Automatic annotation (TrEMBL), chain A:
Subcellular location, record wording: Cell membrane
Superkingdom, natural source: Bacteria
Name under which the protein is recorded: ArsB/NhaD family transporter
Species in which this protein is naturally found: Candidatus Methylophosphatis roskildensis
Upper classification of the organism: Bacteria, Pseudomonadati, Pseudomonadota, Betaproteobacteria, Nitrosomonadales
Pfam annotation, one family: CitMHS
InterPro entries: Arsenical_pump_ArsB (IPR000802), Cit_transptr-like_dom (IPR004680), Diverse_Ion_Transporter (IPR051475)
Cellular-component GO terms for this entry: plasma membrane
Alphabetical list of PANTHER family matching this protein: P PROTEIN (PTHR43568:SF1)
UniProtKB/TrEMBL annotation, chain B:
SUPFAM superfamilies: CBS-domain pair
Protein name: CBS domain-containing protein
Domain of life, source organism: Bacteria
InterPro entries: CBS_dom, CBS_dom_sf, Diverse_CBS-Domain
Pfam families xrefs: CBS (PF00571)
Organism: Candidatus Methylophosphatis roskildensis
Keywords for the protein's UniProt record, in alphabetical order: CBS domain
Domain CBS: 13-73, 109-161
């Protein structure tokens, strides 16, 4: 590699130039005119070519802890889902409530939320929604409330842990927060919000739902054991998932970072799934798993890390942090609540990943004003709760929402932006208000 | 026949044994497709314009829970891998088909089937058939000229019958 010093093209002011590149990049991301991974990479290349960053600085800006955790979890999920355990859980939970539609509405929300706490939200809904549609068809009930509820449950459940939602993976990776930090600080309020969500959907839809006895008998006749495709793989995958969670919990004692745990679990599960198979079979098997890694997300993150390093290097984020502090009068509570509410409302409208990725260095820059990095802890919880839960507000707020809407439309279930938003936005505001009360009570 | 005509799909095209109208019912389509033992039937409007194909897979789909036949190609993760947990019987399948028996064919036809021109090269036609298409419409200026079916082609290339 060349040892190059950053020198801005034509001697332009780096602060202005970096700002223009960032606004251009984010503008194109919001307009959705170009795939988000392409524009993030283009923005990153501009930062280097215009002399705002050297290649070394750009490479150093890519947070491989975050990337490792994302890729590792994607590999683990891609192998685990093959054994049919999620379909099993969905059917089992429906039978547990005697195939009563209102009961199923609540149970599937809980299953989705729990699964989502450990898996990516989009993956969770992709696994739960098809079974839901089989169940609602058998019961001859409107599937819309179930799908609506699962969108919310996936975003709520994902907020509870380090690995549940990309904003948390970003915050955890960049700030060095552990799995336990997330669970201990966020899970209590998430349990309350999930309960509120289950009760609200019951009052809006569940209490009026009925299904004839013969139709319920049909669902009771579903044999969940038949959903398990590979019992051997189920045991191996459960073992590895359990090991990964234990390692997350003991990360500090083990001296391991989350990226290492995620990738370690992935390597172990890949080995267990392939050992003893022929070389040809192994290559085919491994290639299938690698193909299921969401490369768009990975390249998006890589590009974004570099774009943000560019503006950070030019001093823009420090400037913005100072402005925010001046606006809040340096008051910790006002700053925290501004972060919570602005993250929630913005995340309902735009992609929360670039927002969170930009906020992280800005909040870090506030450390001197609030007693060092330790003092910033509550602000990270404000950011996470706002950004993750805000995604529920509109149909475009999170990728899981769009995924469910897409499946619904293909199955002839209308899923319109306004119909969704009219109920979702107020519910989201209630959830954020609960977070506001919790954060005030616990930290401010 | 000129060499050029020989190398096009015209040389293996045949007249469709039956066609459907967009307004025909699903029940009628099922009857025709079973009677002719065909993998698909072309759908043609009153003026002879080609509008789509009704493949037998679409009719099979009508007897299953809808989500099983609407798999999302963008998200292979969302495909149900094992559906043996659904304990439906023949009566359940018949009930699903009965529910849509009077719907028009136009609601269920496939409009994305690749369409051949009379001068489409024979090799391209063979490749389509090899890649799991059993029957293809041949269309000129919007009108259905004929079909290329896997049975006609097998009979010609093997000099059968």
């Amino acid at each position: 590699m060349h040892e190059a010093h950053s020198s801005v093209i034509f001697g332009l002011d780096p602060l202005w130039l970096a700002t223009v590149v960032m606004i251009f990049t984010y503008g194109v991301i919001i307009s959705e005119r170009l795939n988000r991974s392409i524009i993030a990479l283009l923005g990153a290349m501009l930062m280097i070519m215009l002399g705002l960053l050297t290649q070394e600085q750009a490479v150093a800006a890519i947070d491989f802890n975050t990337i490792g955790l994302l890729v590792g979890m994607m590999i683990i999920v891609s192998i685990t889902r093959k054994c049919g355990v999620f379909e099993y859980l969905a059917i089992w939970s429906a039978k547990l409530v005697k195939a009563n539609p209102a009961g199923i509405l609540a149970m599937l929300a809980v299953v989705t939320a729990v699964a989502s706490a450990f898996l990516d939200n989009v993956t969770t809904v992709l696994l739960v929604v098809p079974v839901t549609l089989v169940i609602t068809e058998a019961l001859s009930v409107n599937p819309y409330p179930f799908l609506f509820s699962q969108i919310f449950a996936s975003n709520i459940g994902g907020t509870a842990t380090l690995v549940g939602d990309p904003p948390n993976i970003l915050i955890g990776g960049q700030v060095g927060l552990s799995f336990n930090d997330f669970v201990l600080n966020l899970a209590p309020v998430i349990v309350v919000i999930l309960a509120v969500h289950v009760i609200s959907t019951h009052f809006i839809w569940g209490r009026r739902m009925t299904a004839a006895a013969d139709l319920r008998a049909r669902v009771m006749g579903f044999d969940e054991k038949k959903a398990i495709t590979d019992p051997r793989l189920l045991k191996l995958a459960s073992l590895v998932l359990a090991l990964v969670i234990v390692a997350f919990v003991l990360a500090r004692q083990l001296g391991l970072e989350s990226g290492t745990i995620g990738m370690g679990g992935a390597a172990l599960l890949l080995m267990l799934d392939n050992i003893g198979k022929s070389a040809e079979h192994q290559s085919e098997n491994v290639l299938k798993v690698y193909n299921e890694i969401e490369w768009i997300t990975i390249f998006f993150f890589v590009g974004l890390f570099i774009v943000i390093a560019g503006v950070e290097h030019a001093g823009l984020l420090k400037l913005l942090a100072d402005k925010l502090l001046a606006a809040t009068g340096g008051d910790f509570t006002v700053t925290g609540m501004s972060v919570l509410w602005s993250s929630a409302v913005l995340s309902a409208i735009v992609d929360n990943i670039p927002f969170v990725a930009t906020m992280i260095p800005m909040i870090k820059a506030m450390a001197p004003a609030f007693g060092g990095p330790e003092g910033l802890m509550p602000l990270w919880w404000c950011l996470s709760l706002g950004a993750c839960l805000g995604g529920n507000g509109t149909l475009i707020g999170a990728s899981a929402n769009l995924t469910v809407a897409g499946i619904a439309e293909r199955n002839g279930i209308p899923f319109r932006f306004m119909t969704y938003t009219k109920i979702a936005f107020p519910l989201m505001l209630i959830h954020v208000a609960i977070c506001n009360a919790y954060l005030m009570w616990r930290y401010f | 026949m000129s060499r050029q005509t020989d190398a096009s799909c015209r040389s293996i095209m045949s007249a469709p044994p039956a066609v459907l109208k967009p307004t025909d019912s699903v029940a009628f389509a099922l009857h025709s497709i079973v009677k002719h033992r065909l993998p698909a039937l072309p759908v043609v409007d009153a003026d002879g314009h080609y509008v789509g194909m009704l493949p037998r897979s679409r009719l099979i789909a009508l007897a299953m829970p809808r989500v099983l036949s609407h798999e999302d190609e963008k998200h292979p993760l969302g495909h149900l891998l094992e559906v043996g947990f659904i304990q439906d019987t023949l009566t359940d399948l018949q009930a699903r088909v009965d529910a849509v028996a009077n719907e028009p064919v136009s609601r269920h036809m496939d409009t994305d089937v690749p369409v051949l021109q009379p001068d489409t090269p024979l090799m391209n036609t063979m490749l389509f058939l090899y890649r799991r298409r059993n029957i293809l419409p041949v269309v000129e200026n919007g009108k259905l000229l004929g079909i290329v079916s896997v049975w006609d082609v097998l009979a010609r290339i093997g000099r059968v019958g």
